[in-house]
Amino acid sequence: MRVTIAGGGIVGSYLANLLSDEHEVIVLERQKPESFKAVCAWGTSYHEMRRLLEAVDLEFDEYVLHVGKRMAVDLGHGVVEVPLKGLCTFDKRRLILDLHKRIRVLYGAEVRRTDRPDGDLVVDATGFHRTLLPRPERDYFIPSLEYLVKYRDPPLDDFYVRPLKPLSGYLWYFPLGDGLAHVGAGDYYKRHVQVLNEFVSRHEGEVLATVGRPVRITPPHLAMPVRDDKVVGVGESVGAVYPVLGEGIIPGMQNAEILTELLSDSRLGEYEEALRSFFMPYYRAFQFIRKKFRREYRTIPDVWLLISIFIHMKLREKRYGMKIRMRDWLKVVRTYG
Fold first, then answer.
1. This prediction's pTM
2. Average pLDDT over all residues of the chain
3. Which residues, at least 6 apart from 47, have a Cβ–Cβ distance to it below 8 Å?
4. Residue 295: which region, alpha, beta or left (left: phi > 0; alpha: psi -120 to 50)?
5. Domains in the chain, start-ordered, CATH in brackets?
């Protein structure tokens, strides 16, 4: 097949590498390589990323910047120390550009909704913009802002997050090594700029770069359609983002695996159901988060949603890069109830 992928971020580039052995693939990327920016926090799970990249013959260890030992969850009145099992930061920009070297990429290509690219199959990997697919009937997103900060004396030496009441977002500090850190915040109620700037001003550092973007938390169940004629979506464009964490790197790459397998078996017609099945835990997590946003969460009738999240993550500790303990979850939920 002639496959055209709109969007050369980590998901679109990974998908292109997976498909390139069997199909004629081209990636349309609006940025130029010399000024290419890889947005978002660069935090991920070492173990799952290593597995994913083995499929395209890349060694994840070459891109790792910092492997965490613990994550401090600041509850205001106290701190929960979460042991980590591979949560790390990595050089996302260099990884994406290395993925580009192995495929055909057309840089400086603007993709528009009114002018769909050619191809037997066109993939919308444009992230939040969802440029080629129709808009979902209802869309949920969290505005976020992130700084790349250079510190002479870093205020923290490991991962740090501070949830925002009522679990509508959080502030994060992700160390990158050499005195660098990604410091950002996202909040459904749009208080993130104030929260972030207060933290940055309190801990002196030089802001080197700024990225502001919304993060879609609408799960695939609600992000329909995921197909429109010959266009199919992948990654954040179809809601492959874990709502509890706002994490889209690994879910998007797993989504790319699903699409690749279905294309190889000529089962593209099963794509919608495959996404619903794989991302069912994300839908339940979204239900929990939405109830917290709206202050509609009730402990007894809704506790099954919390238990569902706990079981899903507990069984996948290495995939999420952290030790999952119910007492930690309960402390957070009770504090921000």
1. 0.96
2. 96
3. 85, 86, 318, 319, 321
4. left
5. 2-335 (3.50.50.60)
